[in-house]
Amino acid sequence: MPAVQICEGVYWVGVQDPDLRVFDIIMETKFGTSYGAYLVKGQDAAALIDTVKEEFCDEYLDNLRSVIDLSQIKYLLINHTEPDHSGSISKITELIPDLKIVGSGPALEFLREICHHSYNSQGIGKGMEIRLGGKTLRFLGAMLLHWPDNVYTYLQEDKILFSGDSFGSHYSDDRLFSDLIDFDIIPALKDYFDHIIGPFKPYVLRAVNRLARYEIEMICPGHGPIIRH
Predict the structure, then answer these.
(1) Minimal CA–CA distance to 89: which of 66, 109, 122, 116?
(2) Predicted local distance difference test score (pLDDT) of residue 113
(3) pTM of structure
(4) I need a labelling partner for 157 at 20 to 30 A (CA). Which of 5, 7, 24, 84 fits?
C-alpha cells in the first residue's frame, strides 16, 4: 500500500499485513494487522514517528521516498520499541547517519540492545517540544501502555495524537480511516484493548486524564485504522 496524506504535511507511511493470523504467538488476528508509521513535514525539518517490522522495511522506505528525500528527515520519534515498531531503525539510521532518535529513557535503553551501531539520540524531558516549522510536536508519558517505554506524540497545529499501541486494533484495510470502513471495527478495537492494554487499566485512566486537556481530532495508532470524526 502506498503512502497516504493524512492532512497537509502529515503522511501515513506504514504497511499493511493482511495475511497475519497470529500476533505475538498467542493473539488471533483474523483481520490481519497493520504497522502504523508516520511522517510530519514542517517548513524547516521533518520527523518520522515510529518504523515498521523488519521484514517490511523495504516497503516502508519506498513509502518514505515517495513523499520526501530521506536527507530532509531530522528526527525519528519513538513511541514504543517493540520490534513491530522499531524493526527498521537499524536500516534507517544507516541511510540517514545524522538522524536524531528521540524517545523516553527506557526506549533509548532498549534501542541500545536493538541497534548494533551508534546513533544520535535525545531523551524526552518534561515539557519538551520539537518545532519543525509550522508543526509542533509534544510528548505525553504513557508508561506501561503497554511497555515501560511508551509515550504519546501530539501534533499541536493539526490536533493529531500519535498513540503507539493505545487505541489500536489488529485490522488491515487499505481505506485506512475508520470513517471510510463499512465494517464495524469496534469488536477489533475491544479485542485489542482486552489483550494488550486492558491489563494496565490504572495507567489507561491516568493517560486519559492527561489527554483530556488536549483537543484531538484524529488518533493515529501503531496498529489498525486511523480514528477520526
Answers:
(1) 116
(2) 84
(3) 0.96
(4) 84
